[in-house]
Structure formats: structure tokens, C-alpha cells
Amino acid sequence: SRSVYLWRRILGIAAMYAAEQDVAHEASKCMGIYVCDLTCGLEDNELWSLFLQWGRIMSFERINQGSDEALAIEYDTWQAARDARRAVNYACVRDKTVRCLLRSDLKTIRQTMLSGQRLMIENLDITLDSNGLFDACCLFGHVLDCKIEHKNEKSCGYGFVHYATFEDATKALNILNKMQLGDSTLEVRVFEWKDTQNFSGCHYSTHLNRELSASAAGYTLPNLN
Length: 225
Fold this sequence. Notes:
Blueprint lengths: L1 H27 L3 E5 L7 H9 L4 E9 L2 E8 L2 H11 L10 E4 H9 L6 E5 L7 H8 L5 E9 L2 E10 L2 H11 L3 E2 L2 E2 L1 E4 L35
Antiparallel strand pairs: 1-3, 1-4, 2-3, 5-7, 5-10, 6-7, 8-9
Helix pairs in contact: 1-5
């Protein structure tokens, strides 16, 4: 059917953009990742063991903001960070879908929150998940972050996408707004500061006011003894 063909094409193009993300990562040689939307109460040892499978961990920082938990990790190679990002982004960790961003992208995200590169997407089909929205948004360019908000494990019907460039965001805005996706007609606009209160797992925009690095104060290795 036409819908199956279109979805396969979306997946194919999304895979192409995923490969482009790997190319961009190789160029930056970023060795750090930032993991959002973690389940509260996970032990350091459990997280350490999970992320150790992709490479040697040089630094490990828990970041708590109210009920939100995040984790900043620095590996000894950019390849380890790449493999961790590939495996963890939109993976389920203890019954909760997490997001995994590159540390090098956080500064770009913070600096462009309100410059038109971040879009608010409303009236989403409630059966769509964050990974599905990410795949659809990758049709228009390099996506740095993307999420559908959930409450009590149910979709709130809105989300955001943050593009690496203003040009990609503008293209996505012009095409996605009023587009039919699933059973809903999307409403897309430029993200506003008031929208930040509607999302969990995004405290990189307000809480992290320094660029994360292995030498930054606060990085400590967990006591595994």
C-alpha cells in the first residue's frame, strides 16, 4: 500500500541521516554523552555497568533536577561515545525511554533554543513515540534532540524537535505544519521559552550553564568498592 511505501521511505531516509550523524560525530571526535529521562533511583553501580560495555569511562556525573535525572559520561575514545549514543538513544532503561545526546551538541542546543532551530509540535497522534517522531523529522535535516512528552506512560500529544541548522528547521516547519501524520494533523510552530515548562528531561537548557568536560568541577568517578 502507499502508506507502507511512504513509511519504508521515511525509514530509509532516516537511516541515511543517522549515517550523516555518525559522520558529524567523527568530525567532532566528541567523547562525551549526556543521557536524559533516566528513571529515578538507579544506583551508580548499575549505570556504570551499563555504560561500561561501550568503552572505558573517564568521568561520570549524576545530574538531579527535581524529579528529573540525567547522566554525563566521558569516554576515553570518540568511538565509544558513538557506540553508546547509537545503542542508548530512545532505548528502554528500566521501563523508561531515555535520550542520549552528544556533549558537543549541548552548547549548540542551549544557544539556539529560541532562535528558530527548536520547533514545538502539537496535536500528535497519541500512538506515535519519540523515536517515530525523530525518524520523521530526520527527513528534513540533522536532528540534535527530539521528544514526545508523556505523563503516566501516556502521550501528551505534543513534542519538540531541535535541528542543527536554522535552514533545516525552517524547511521542517514549512512542510510539517498542517501535515497529516498518523490520525492527526500536526500543528508546528517555533519553540518559545514558556514551552520549556511542558517538558521533562530538558534541564540541559537551564541547569547546565557550563560546557561539560572531563576537567569540569563536579566530575567524580563512582565508588565501586
